Amino acid sequence: MSYRIARGEQGVLTFEPYKSLLLPLWRFKTVPIARASLAALAAAFTSYVARGDFVGADMARKFIQMGMTRARRYANHKGGKKYDRSEREVERNGGGRVELAKSKGHDGMEEKAAASEIFKKGWEACRADEGYQELKTAFQKEQKEWDKAHKGNSVKTEIVKREEVKKENGIKEEVKVKEEPDQG
Fold first, then answer.
1. Distance (Å, whole) CA 63 – CA 29
2. Contact of 118 with 38, CB cutoff 8 Å
3. In the chain, at which end, N or C, are there fewer CB atoms within 10 A of the end residue's CB?
4. Is residue 171 very low, low, confident or very high in pLDDT (cuts 50, 70, 90)?
5. Model confidence pLDDT, tens digit, residues 81-135
6. First vs last Cα of the chain: how many Å apart?
7. Contact 115, 34 (CB under 8 A)
8. Cα separation of 60 and 44, whole Å?
């Protein structure tokens, strides 16, 4: 089983084909756009639940949750920048990150806060949906059984390393290098 529920909205941009299907529906720039986005994502969520597709339903829920959190970030921080440096910069240069102070007021602040509330109501509805809860319970049980059955097996896994490669034109680009871990 490759899908893991994970915490919050983790993994939302990594699991295909759901990412490609749901990402175009996810928008929060204005209240009307947030309403339309929530309606489309909620319809996808309902469709996945009706078909018994827990992974699809969970991914739709994550996009709805991400609409809430990202809109809230843009309400709290002008330009949506919460930290002084990105995680990638910290990995590359070491050190840590400092959370920037929340904005006292900026253009669009109220609109983003309202958009966040729209998504929050949709997210709460997803979490409370009985069909979703039943699918989640069944998925967790199946996942536990699968993990137990595969414990100790020498299942090959991949480690993805990120390396910077300098291209011929002098531009650095990050690439993924896959390797098998030691089975010792």
1. 15
2. yes
3. C
4. low
5. 777 777 788 788 888 888 877 878 878 889 999 999 999 999 999 999 999 999 9
6. 23
7. yes
8. 7
CA pair distance 59, 122, nearest whole angstrom: 14
Backbone angles phi, psi at 159, to 5 degrees: -105, 130
CA angle 177, 182, 94 (to 5 degrees): 50
Q: What is the pLDDT of residues 16-68, one digit of tens each?
A: 999 999 999 999 989 999 999 999 999 999 999 999 999 999 999 999 999 99
| pLDDT, position 129 | 98
What is the distance of C-alpha 131 from the center of its chain?
A: 22
Omega cis (within 30) before 181: no
The DSSP secondary structure of 109-150, one letter per residue, reads: HHHHHHHHHHHHHHHHHHHH-HHHHHHHHHHHHHHHHHHHHH
What are residue 62's phi and psi, to 5 degrees? -65, -40
Domain boundaries defined on the chain: 18-93+104-153
Stretch 132-140: mean pLDDT: 96
The pLDDT value given to residue 89: 81
Residue partners of 117: CB distance under 8 A and separation at least 6: none
Residue 127 region by backbone torsions, left for phi larger than 0, else alpha for psi between -120 and 50, else beta: alpha
- Return the closest-CA partner of residue 121 out of 58, 6, 34, 14: 34
